Amino acid sequence: MRLTMILLGCGVAAGVLIPALLLIDGATRPGYSLWHNGASQLGTGERGWLQTANFVIGGLLLLAFAAGLRRALPPGRAAVWATFLLVVCGLAAVVAGIVPTDPALGYPPGRAEVVTTAGRIHGLAGLVLFVALAAMPLVPARGPHGGSRGWTVYSRWSGALVITFAIAAGVAFRLDAQGVVRPAPAGLLEHAALVVGFAWITVAAARLLRRNALREV
Questions:
Q1: How far is CA 44 from CA 91, 97, 99, 185, 191, in A?
Q2: Model confidence over 77-136: pLDDT tens digits?
Q3: How many degrees, rounded to 5, is the angle at CA 21 between CA 50 and CA 11?
């Protein structure tokens, strides 16, 4: 039981660490705009190592949370899918941290905008991450462990908002890159998707922690 509690606590840590560090670093990074630039671009330029560590450590915490989730949830299809999606999310975060994205939208300043193999790999990892973040809240919304109606509604809205914000961020990025809308709010929309997705992970982990603590008592 103690190991399960520790592993579930890793979910709370990951859910808070990743978006908080992204927002704080983005707000204080010279030349970077939370409105304009994507979250992945914090892995490049000045203090790029900080976001590399953030994604890698956060991804490992998500993998630990997946192990705790598998131990805490009752057997069933929903438990299998929730654990699988969380593993995918964690692995995608680790890859996104190790493999940096390409310069884009004027960041890092003075760097030419190019498309590299590393950038494509990072982009694929980012896509997988957002798909997993959007899908995870929908699994427990249908599962027998979903809980109250309020939790179900919150989970469904979280999944819908993640995918909506992520798609809108992609559209904004394209419009900006093509010079149609400048500066487009690609960064704002992408950060919003991440905040919503990781907020759900934090709340889900906290609920499971509370449930297991009550069982221990």
A1: 20, 10, 10, 20, 17
A2: 878 888 999 999 999 999 999 999 999 888 898 888 888 999 999 999 999 999 999 999
A3: 110
Sequential DSSP letters for 6-28: HHHHHHHHHHHHHHHHHHHHHHH
- Using CA atoms, how far residue 119 sits from 17, 63, 64, in Å, is 24, 24, 27
CA of residue 186 relative to chain centroid, distance:
16
The Cα-based distances of 216 to 65, 69, 147, 209 in angstroms read 19, 16, 19, 11
**Tokens at residue 175, please?**
């419009």
Q: What is the mean pLDDT of the chain?
A: 90
Amino acid present at 118: A
Q: Confirm if 34 and 195 have CB atoms less than 8 A apart.
A: no
Q: SS3 of 182, please?
A: coil
For residues 22-36, one letter each, b for 16 or more C-beta atoms within 10 angstroms of the residue's C-beta and e for the rest, the string is bbebbeebeebbbeb
Top-tier CATH class for 2-216: mainly alpha
- Alpha helices (runs of H) in the chain, residue ranges in sequence order: 2-28, 48-72, 77-98, 117-135, 138-142, 149-177, 186-216
Residues 6+ away with beta carbon under 8 Å from 20: none
